[in-house]
Every structure is written in structure tokens, then in C-alpha cells.
């Protein structure tokens, strides 16, 4: 980051006009966006000015709507959020919450799909001897649980 860009961003960040309703999340998101958009990894004053304008727009829109900022505002620009229905926003916000509080993406997936995984129909798998099959959540012919089954075409 150039000295001028740093000075400009810090002046804005510590000014009375910077409300930072998301506290560190907003600040961290701003730095991350600027670093991502920086050509050659160097944050310029133009990038800082664009980010300041984006933050002011987002904060103004939130103030006008009278709503608290949520996790979606941290990852999506206001123009993209405007394209998403309120129902979908609620679902996406929950997915982000689960992902952020899970120790791994695998655990997040287990938490997000716990109900549908529990309801998933059980399938039958060969036990290794003849035509006897056992219940499994893996692939295989569909047979009644605890009933012998003959594999079709085997």
C-alpha cells in the first residue's frame, strides 16, 4: 500500500463519518477487498477511493433501510444484494453463519444437511456372500431392509 493510500484510508477509517457497524468484519473486509483488487499487490489511492465510496454507499443503504448489517453485506456488494430475494438472503446468511462457526467445511456440510442426510433412503449393499444384502447409505440396488435381495443383472 502506498503511503498516500494508507494515509487516506486511515483518515477515513478513524473519521466520524466512518460508522463501522460491522466493526472488525467491515474493516477486515475492506482491507481484503482492496488487497484483492490491487494490481500487482499494491493498493493505490484509486482503490482506496473506490473502497471508501463502496463503504459509504453500503452504510447509507443500511441506514435508509433501518436494518442491521449481516454476514451477506460482508461478502457481497450492495448491487449484488439488491438482486437477491429476502427469502434467499435468509438462507444464505444461515449458510455463512454455519460455515463461519464450523471447524471445517466437512463439518459445515454435515451441519447444513443433517436433516436431509438422516431422511436419505437407505440402500442395500452385498454382504459378500451370495444374494444377501445389508442396509447402507452407499450405492446399490434398492431392497427392503433385513430381507434377502437378488441383484438384477448380476
What does it look like?
With 154 residues, the chain is mainly α. The protein folds into 3 domains: 3-69; 84-119, no CATH class; 121-154, no CATH class. The chain has helices at residues 3-13, 24-37, 45-65, 71-75, 78-81, 86-101, 105-112, 114-119; strands at 123-126, 133-136. A two-stranded antiparallel sheet has the order 1-2. Strand 1 and strand 2 form a beta hairpin. Helix 1 (3-13) packs parallel to helix 3 and helix 2 (24-37) runs antiparallel to helix 3 (45-65). It is elongated. The model is unreliable at 138-154 (pLDDT under 50).
Layout of helices and strands, plus pairs?
Blueprint lengths: L2 H11 L10 H14 L7 H21 L5 H5 L2 H4 L4 H16 L3 H8 L1 H6 L3 E4 L6 E4 L18
Antiparallel strand pairs: 1-2
Helix pairs in contact: 1-3, 2-3, 6-7
Short description:
Helix content is 55%, strand content 5%.
Strand content bin: 5-15%
Radius of gyration (CA) equals 26 Å
Q: Could you tell me how far the N terminus lies from the C terminus, measured between alpha carbons in angstroms?
A: 66 Å
Reading side by side through the largest sheet, how are the strands ordered?
1-2
Mean pLDDT across all residues, rounded?
74
Tell me the major beta sheet. 2 strands, antiparallel
Work out the number of β strands: 2
Structural class by SSE content: mainly alpha
Contiguous helical run count: 8
Which term fits the overall shape?
elongated
**Number of domain modules:** 3
Q: pLDDT under 50 segments (min length 5)?
A: 138-154
The succession of helices and strands, N to C, reads: HHHHHHHHEE
Tell me roughly what share of residues is in helical segments.
55-70%
Amino acid at each position: 500500500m502506498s503511503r498516500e493510500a494508507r494515509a487516506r484510508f486511515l483518515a477515513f477509517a478513524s473519521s466520524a463519518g466512518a460508522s463501522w457497524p460491522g466493526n472488525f468484519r467491515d474493516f477486515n473486509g475492506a482491507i481484503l477487498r482492496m488487497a484483492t483488487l490491487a494490481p500487482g499487490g499494491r493498493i493505490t489511492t484509486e482503490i482506496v477511493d473506490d473502497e471508501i465510496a463502496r463503504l459509504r454507499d453500503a452504510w447509507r443503504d443500511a441506514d435508509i433501510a433501518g436494518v442491521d448489517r449481516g454476514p451477506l453485506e460482508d461478502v457481497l456488494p450492495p448491487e449484488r444484494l439488491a438482486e437477491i430475494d429476502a427469502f434467499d438472503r435468509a438462507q444464505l446468511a444461515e449458510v455463512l453463519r454455519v460455515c463461519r462457526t464450523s471447524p471445517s467445511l466437512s463439518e459445515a456440510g454435515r451441519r447444513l444437511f443433517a436433516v436431509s442426510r438422516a431422511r436419505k433412503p437407505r440402500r442395500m449393499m452385498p454382504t459378500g456372500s451370495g444374494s444377501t444384502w445389508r442396509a447402507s447409505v452407499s450405492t446399490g440396488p434398492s431392497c427392503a431392509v433385513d430381507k434377502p435381495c437378488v441383484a438384477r443383472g448380476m
